[in-house]
């Protein structure tokens, strides 16, 4: 049986797993390097298709993914100059969403005044961001600041599309009770919840734990870093963590629908995080960046793959057993879900 819609859901758990994300925020949708001049790609935000394209002038633009004529997907067409061209009749759509050119006979008629919706776009942190909500709020809301990137911190970018609801991902990255799942890699161990604060649209969580217990990482981590605790925050709709101001990460989710989510991770490491093995000598940045490329393949991606498997299994379980009660023990997860629900109720109001 299909899980209930948000309106029909009876429990907090059901509502959280049916909620979308409020459109009045900036959402990471693609890496900047992935969209070349003259290229168009389809972006889906909560079942709404958006055509993102880079004109031949190098500027990014985003419009409804439908031709103003027969409603075909414009992402199946091509870019001409700064216009987006439908593959069927060749109608060109300008960056303002209006029809800019019709290549065939118009039978004595003027170009229709039809207009498709346009969306604010910007590039920050190597990512393309789209504002799918009220464009008047785009200048009020801000993309999260990540000053560490401008300061030259080494970073590891990772993205994936997982067959799971976005709330499952937020629960996963901030709920450390799933230590058992990562027994092989040991990113954290023996977690104890020490902090839970809800402030406006943020849920702050703290754990007393051992961060980074894998023996291979122990050899190169700076011993002066306090890895005995970690702070995390669900700063709606984003998520971040901080270990002693030296090891950080950001998680940005792009909700596709109730069953699929694209997720972008940025892992950040202070320049003095690593030392040469068995010494107290700071590892040169060039060496750190090379090591992190190896760590991404050998540790970070496989670690996230474990999360993917668990989240996708949870999605299947939810669809099969959504009517059964969920005895959630971690109060932090309950607060994550309450925030997701309240913001979606706000969006629907």
UniProtKB/TrEMBL annotation:
Species assigned in the record: Lentzea tibetensis
Record-given protein name: Aromatic ring-hydroxylating dioxygenase subunit alpha
Span of domain Rieske: 26-130
Membrane spanning stretches: none
UniProt-recorded Gene Ontology molecular function terms: 2 iron, 2 sulfur cluster binding; dioxygenase activity; metal ion binding; monooxygenase activity; oxidoreductase activity, acting on paired donors, with incorporation or reduction of molecular oxygen
Domain of life: Bacteria
UniProt keyword terms in alphabetical order: 2Fe-2S, Dioxygenase, Iron, Iron-sulfur, Metal-binding, Oxidoreductase
Pfam family, one: Rieske
């Amino acid at each position: 049986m299909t899980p209930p819609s948000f309106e029909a859901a009876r429990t907090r758990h059901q509502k959280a797993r049916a909620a979308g994300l409020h459109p009045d925020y900036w959402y990471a949708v693609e890496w900047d390097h992935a969209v070349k001049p003259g290229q168009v790609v389809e972006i889906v935000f909560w079942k709404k298709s958006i055509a993102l394209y880079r004109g031949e002038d190098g500027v990014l633009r985003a419009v409804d993914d439908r031709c103003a004529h027969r409603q075909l997907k414009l992402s199946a067409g091509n870019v001409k100059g700064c216009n987006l061209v439908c593959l069927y009749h060749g109608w060109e759509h300008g960056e303002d969403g209006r029809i800019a050119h019709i290549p065939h006979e118009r039978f004595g008629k003027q170009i229709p005044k039809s207009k498709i919706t346009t969306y604010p776009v910007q590039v920050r942190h190597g990512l393309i961001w789209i504002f799918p909500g009220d464009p008047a709020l785009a200048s009020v809301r801000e993309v999260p600041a990540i000053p560490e990137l401008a300061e030259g911190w080494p970073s590891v970018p990772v993205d994936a599309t997982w067959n799971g609801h976005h709330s499952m991902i937020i629960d996963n990255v901030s709920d450390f009770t799933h230590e058992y799942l990562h027994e092989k890699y040991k990113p954290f161990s023996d977690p104890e919840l020490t902090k839970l604060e809800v402030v406006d649209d943020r849920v702050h969580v703290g754990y007393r734990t051992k961060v980074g217990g894998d023996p291979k990482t122990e050899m190169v981590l700076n011993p002066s870093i306090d890895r005995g605790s970690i702070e995390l925050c669900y700063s709606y709709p984003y998520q971040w963590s901080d270990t002693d101001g030296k090891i950080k990460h950001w998680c940005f989710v792009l909700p596709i629908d109730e069953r699929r989510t694209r997720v972008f991770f940025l892992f950040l490491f202070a320049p003095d995080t690593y030392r040469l093995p068995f010494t107290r000598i700071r590892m040169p940045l060039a060496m750190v960046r090379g090591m992190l490329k190896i760590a991404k393949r050998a540790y970070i991606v496989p670690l996230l793959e474990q999360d993917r498997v668990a989240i996708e299994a949870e999605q299947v379980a939810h669809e099969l057993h959504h009517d059964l009660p969920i005895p959630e023990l971690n109060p932090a997860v309950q607060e994550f879900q309450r925030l997701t629900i309240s913001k979606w109720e706000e969006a629907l109001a």
